[in-house]
């Protein structure tokens, strides 16, 4: 299959809980873990950037950098709204609830793709006593970066080293700025393809995980996968679906090429 | 409904409140690191706030937090800390690496890559935990280093950290007081491509304002710069470097915020054969890193 231009880029994976309160946040945690396991399955490296857990369990939001061979190529169609249908653990009457979460896949820019002037970035970090250096012991290494021209923000506190937090926040910031530019470019392109990437997908319902019926349905290619538990463990089952999506996408792009030439 | 006392979020809230009440600096950050440590994690970021602690773990958290109440630095309580991507053991009274020094090593690395493409000999004066020399050795696989410190504990800790990071083969550590070394007693005249140092640079006035975390637990010899302007040790390191640097070799120093212009003047007036190349800013935008070169 021919490669698209961004296919060998590393990515930033962002998950956000959607509709459904606590149940949605639990589901967000499960999906994030699914991709962490898939990264392991594919021999990719994962760097955690953000991880907002809630008081009552679950994940509100998380960001991770994933790097390795073909990361964007395989994960690009995972972006969109994932929906779960099941009886929540806290539900007493046994009623099935529907909750959602959103996955965003952002390619990380290569060196040449993006130019950010250091003076455009404002860095917030722990305000240690005036003199800094040897005169104070600091353990708060949280770093927050703001790109002044666009207002885009990135924050990281997953590491003990301030420099490591800064490097990760910078990667996140660059990816967010880059993706904003990319999306502005494609905003005017018109496509009837079911398999698309970018912000157009952000509010599209792409997949439903139905526990009572033990099936996963991808709404772009139809068809059902059974053994939900295996699927959500981020291994061969997920990989098979992803390969189907890639094949489908290639067929669609060929079709589009022939339709409009 | 009150949450049970043994879940992470309750424990964090409790100890943050106790630290705050007792004027312990960074109360919530401290609580976060200590609870994370008990749960086997480096930071609280990935710990589920919903997780429950066993009674054994609760006791462990309490023991660690009581130490923090006595203003023991978190890094000493946990026994280790990260310097860039290196995890190093931390042990009182050896100085805990500061975040600014993470920037110093990157400047030195860029200089080494520029001037010594193959291999280099590096000296770390006042090595402390070994952060500087070990990070450089890790990032320059063909380099060798000699590290010196006035403190036997620092020398031992540097050796321990070199061993745990598998770098001991390329590092020799010597207990040595650079203020008393003279050209005749030097074992390594004019041999080094780079001398790097984070010497004590705190002024007598600043010493009075230091937190107990520093004055009660860290080696005063690693902090007190000496002299009314805190520059005494810095000047000794400069003198020592003049004798141990190769021609064209670099001296890189982390200093106090008032020192760059004072050092520039000192070098111009008293150090023939040494040039003050530049002062570089730290992440707060203030000049802190001095680059000198032997002509």
Task: Give a verbal description of the structure.
The complex is a heterodimer of chains A (261) and B (295). Chain A has 261 residues and is α+β, with helices and mostly antiparallel strands. Chain A is 32% helix and 27% strand. Chain A contains 6 helices and 11 strands. Chain A has helices spanning 21-41, 71-75, 162-186, 199-202, 228-231, 236-259, and strands at residues 11-17, 45-53, 59-67, 80-86, 97-107, 121-125, 143-147, 152-156, 205-210, 215-218, 224-226. An 8-stranded mixed sheet of chain A has the order 2-3-1-5-4-9-10-11. In chain A, strands 6-7-8 form a 3-stranded antiparallel sheet. The longest helix of chain A has 25 residues, at 162-186. Chain A is globular and about 65 Å long. Chain A starts with 10 loop residues before the first strand and ends with a helix. In chain A, 41% of the residues are buried. Chain B has 295 residues and is α/β, with parallel strands linked by helices. Helix content of chain B is 40%, strand content 19%. A 7-stranded mixed sheet of chain B has the order 5-4-3-6-7-9-8, sandwiched between helices. A two-stranded antiparallel ribbon of chain B has the order 1-2. The longest helix of chain B has 17 residues, at 99-115. Chain B is elongated, with a radius of gyration of 21 Å. The mean pLDDT of chain B is 93. The interface between A and B is large, with 32 and 52 residues.
């Amino acid at each position: 299959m021919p490669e698209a231009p961004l296919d060998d880029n590393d990515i930033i994976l962002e998950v956000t809980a959607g509709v459904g309160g606590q149940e949605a946040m639990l589901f967000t945690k499960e999906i994030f873990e699914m991709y962490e396991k898939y990264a392991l399955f594919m021999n990719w490296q994962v760097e955690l950037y953000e991880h907002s857990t809630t008081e009552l369990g679950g994940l509100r939001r998380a960001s991770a950098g994933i790097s390795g061979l073909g990361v964007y190529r395989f994960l690009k169609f995972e972006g969109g709204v994932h929906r779960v249908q099941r009886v929540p653990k806290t539900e007493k009457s046994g009623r099935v609830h529907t909750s959602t979460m959103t996955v965003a896949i952002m390619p990380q820019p290569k060196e040449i793709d993006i130019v950010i002037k250091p003076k455009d970035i404002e860095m917030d970090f722990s305000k240690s006593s005036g003199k800094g250096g040897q005169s104070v012991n600091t353990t708060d290494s949280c770093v927050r970066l703001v790109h002044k021209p666009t207002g885009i923000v990135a924050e990281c506190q997953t590491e003990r080293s301030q420099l490591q937090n800064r490097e990760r926040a910078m990667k996140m910031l660059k990816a967010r700025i880059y993706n904003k530019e990319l999306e502005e470019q494609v905003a005017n392109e018109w496509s009837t393809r079911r398999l698309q990437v970018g912000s157009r997908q952000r509010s599209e319902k792409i997949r439903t995980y139905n526990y009572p019926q033990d099936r996963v349905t991808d709404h772009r290619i139809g068809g059902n996968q059974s053994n939900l538990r295996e699927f959500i463990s981020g291994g061969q089952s997920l990989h098979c679906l992803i390969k189907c999506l890639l094949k489908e996408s290639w067929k669609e792009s060929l079709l589009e090429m022939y339709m409009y030439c | 409904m009150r949450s049970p006392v043994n879940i992470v979020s309750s424990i964090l809230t409790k100890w943050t409140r106790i630290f705050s009440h007792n004027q312990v600096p960074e109360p919530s950050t401290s609580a976060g690191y200590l609870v994370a440590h008990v749960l086997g994690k480096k930071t609280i970021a990935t710990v589920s706030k919903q997780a429950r602690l066993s009674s054994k773990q609760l006791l462990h958290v309490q023991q660690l937090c009581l130490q923090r109440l006595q203003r023991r630095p978190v890094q000493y309580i946990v026994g280790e800390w990260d310097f860039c991507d290196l995890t190093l053991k931390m042990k009182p009274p050896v100085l805990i690496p500061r975040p600014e020094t993470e920037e110093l090593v990157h400047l030195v690395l860029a200089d080494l890559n520029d001037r010594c493409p193959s291999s280099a000999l590096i000296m770390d004066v006042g090595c402390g935990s070994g952060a500087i020399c070990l990070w450089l050795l890790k990032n320059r696989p063909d380099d060798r280093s000699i590290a010196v410190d006035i403190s036997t504990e620092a020398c031992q800790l540097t050796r321990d950290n070199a061993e745990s990071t598998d770098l001991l083969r390329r590092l020799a550590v010597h207990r040595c007081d650079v203020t008393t070394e003279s050209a005749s007693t030097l074992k390594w005249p004019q041999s080094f491509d780079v001398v790097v140092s984070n010497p004590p640079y705190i002024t007598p006035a600043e010493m009075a304002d230091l937190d107990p975390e520093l004055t009660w637990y860290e080696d005063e010899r690693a902090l007190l710069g000496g002299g009314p302007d805190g520059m005494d040790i810095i000047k000794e390191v400069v003198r020592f470097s003049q004798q141990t640097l190769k021609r064209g070799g670099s001296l890189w120093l982390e200093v106090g915020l008032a020192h760059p212009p004072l050092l520039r003047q000192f070098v111009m007036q008293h150090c023939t054969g040494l040039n003050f190349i530049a002062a570089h800013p730290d992440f707060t935008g203030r000049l802190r890193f001095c680059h000198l070169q032997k002509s």
